[in-house]
């Protein structure tokens, strides 16, 4: 135990030293998934799952909305900073000129996407298999800009972050009788897990060797979940949290098996369940004032187009709130989550 603690401390010190010297720890960061990490790819889609309008982005640079489902930075933005990047992976579909802008990575995530393909189609979002197609285009552009050898190095040494699964449950399974009347939550999680396996195998086939995948958060603690499924209680919905824990257990086992079967793959499961659960259940101990209601509007149901400049009662100081809207963490909460991701993802950079 002591040896592993010393190794972790040493690794963190090396990381800090390199970042201080102005050297990113990896050549690029590529991001796939859902609205928790979407940096604006949904902005020009024919979907109501978007956030390119106030008050989204009010605490971001220039106080402008970018399509991030947050008042400010996403956890992946903080992760990019922690890795030593001075810019964030740009939303791939928003880039006017790609070329050089892709040298440090790109963001392919789309709000309301999931491992389960039909989830994205319900909301006219970009499914993960299409996100991979965009990544293939990105690879070809990199080859054109830097040459095959340099592009191959960027691709193999980059970190790939994946955040998906929450929409499959909260925005599909729990509200879709075609699913919840046919499958138990356990059976549905098995279906989602098979799609996860295929996605990782396909990403690996495209050259990814350092992949971090986030767990499901405590689904039953999301303000919108408590409002919809909490039976007028202000407490986390334990049934939903149990589903998330069961899914996360499968995610861990499945990821271990994938890492064994795919040579030279480092596949790290990044836990956001426990850190976010801690913030929700012990807000004051973590420097937060409010964990049940979100900052935007009433804080009980508003997200996406329901969180807008006319929303009544949007809070003055989002840093006191665990949630920005009823589905997504605030910038302050994202900072806490990102610091946890850095430690749990140490294998990706050591």
From TrEMBL:
Query: What is any Pfam family matched here?
Result: Lipase_GDSL
What range does the record give for the signal peptide? 1-22
Q: Which terms does the UniProt entry file under GO BP? A: lipid metabolic process
What protein name is recorded for this chain?
GDSL esterase/lipase
Q: Which GO terms describe its molecular function?
A: lipase activity
Q: Which InterPro entries match?
A: GDSL, GDSL_lipolytic_enzyme, Lipase_GDSL_AS, SGNH_hydro_sf, SGNH_plant_lipase-like
The family assignment reads:
Belongs to the 'GDSL' lipolytic enzyme family.
Signal as a keyword of this entry, yes or no, is yes
Q: Which domain of life is it from?
A: Eukaryota
Q: Which PROSITE patterns match?
A: LIPASE_GDSL_SER (PS01098)
Keywords from the UniProt entry: Signal
């Amino acid at each position: 135990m002591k040896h592993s603690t010393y190794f972790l401390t040493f690794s963190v010190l090396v990381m800090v030293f390199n970042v201080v010297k102005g050297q990113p720890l990896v050549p690029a960061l590529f991001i796939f998934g859902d609205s928790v990490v979407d940096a604006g790819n949904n902005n020009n889609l024919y979907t109501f799952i978007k956030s390119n309008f106030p008050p989204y982005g009010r605490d971001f640079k220039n106080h402008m909305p970018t399509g991030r489902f947050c008042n400010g930075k996403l956890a992946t933005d903080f992760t990019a900073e922690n890795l030593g990047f001075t810019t964030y992976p740009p939303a791939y579909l928003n880039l006017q000129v790609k070329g050089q802008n892709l040298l440090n990575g790109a963001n392919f995530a789309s709000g309301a996407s999931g491992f389960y393909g039909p989830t994205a189609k319900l909301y006219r979002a970009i499914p993960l298999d299409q996100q991979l197609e965009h990544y293939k285009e990105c690879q070809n552009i990199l080859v054109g800009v830097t040459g095959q050898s340099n592009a191959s190095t960027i691709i193999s040494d980059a970190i790939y972050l994946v955040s998906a699964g929450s929409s499959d449950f909260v925005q599909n399974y729990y509200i879709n009788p075609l699913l919840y009347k046919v499958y138990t939550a356990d059976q549905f999680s098995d279906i989602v897990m098979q799609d996860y396996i295929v996605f990782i195998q396909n990403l690996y086939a495209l050259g990814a060797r350092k992949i971090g995948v986030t767990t499901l958060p405590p689904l039953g603690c999301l303000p919108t979940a408590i409002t919809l499924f909490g039976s007028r209680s202000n407490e986390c919905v334990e049934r939903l949290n149990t589903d998330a824990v069961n899914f996360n257990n499968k995610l861990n086992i499945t990821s271990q098996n994938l890492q064994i079967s795919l040579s030279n793959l480092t596949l790290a499961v990044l836990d956001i369940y426990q850190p976010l659960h801690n913030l929700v259940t012990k807000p004051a101990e973590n420097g937060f004032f409010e964990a049940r209601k979100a900052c935007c509007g009433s804080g009980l149901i508003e997200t996406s187009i329901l969180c807008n400049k006319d929303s009544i009662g949007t809070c003055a100081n989002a840093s006191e709130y665990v949630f920005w809207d009823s589905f997504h963490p605030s910038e302050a909460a994202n900072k806490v989550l990102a610091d946890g991701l850095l430690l749990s993802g140490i294998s990706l950079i050591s």
